[in-house]
Amino acid sequence: MNVSRIAILGVALVAGAAAFFLMLGNDTEIAPVQIVEPVREETVRVLVSSNNIQRGQRLTLEDTRWIAWPKKAVQPNFITEETTDAREELESAVARSLIVAGEPIVNAKIVKAGSSGLMAAILAPGMRAVTLRVSPETSSGGFILPGDRVDILFAAGRDGREGGARTIFENVRVLAVNTTYSENTENSHIDGSNVTLELSPNDAEAFTSARGAGSLNLVLRSIFKPENDIQATERRSSNVSVIRYGRS
């Protein structure tokens, strides 16, 4: 073996040894890999409706279920599993208003069984229920449904011909038509003979007096608010007086 080959071999050995020691030095400097586990969000089991619950409908166990809800998003009025036997206590409770599927059930929207009757459960606190016998001609052709808003027109005299009609109440909530309480009825038309309305105590007295002094008509209101009040008032004659709902 000549001198040149021995020199090349020596250089190779030295380079290999240097690379080996450099690799060992780099390994000592590499920090260990830390595996970070994802933080699990804390949840609370909240009572929600399993399906649509109509106003006036009595609840059953099949109408409710527990689901996990982010704890930070739980509202004070939610019913949680921490409440003892909360789900069983709601059996046969009455819905005050429509509860859609998946919506958390809150005490403000229900009345527990035994606390009041069906109509009393639907009424807003402090309000009264009054009933008016109607015909298609006096109830917007029968297209007034529970949950709608109406104006009440009064015409003096038994047949309503002794004086011009005037609006005595505006924006009155319809509680029921005959014995139908549902706000989301499948029918777009109910041939009702009796309409139950929600009024304040003073308005209920004025309503009863007007019912005995003349004829009353219900006028259906749109669910949409006008962009301005000009269109709603410019066709009103000067002899029409208005008693606004709740302010008589």
From TrEMBL:
Superkingdom as given in the UniProt entry: Bacteria
SMART domains, alphabetized: SAF (SM00858)
Domain SAF residue range list: 44-111
A Pfam family that the UniProt record links to this protein: RcpC
InterPro entries: Pilus_assmbl_Flp-typ_CpaB, RcpC_dom, SAF
Protein name stated in the entry: Flp pilus assembly protein CpaB
Source organism of this protein record: Hyphococcus flavus
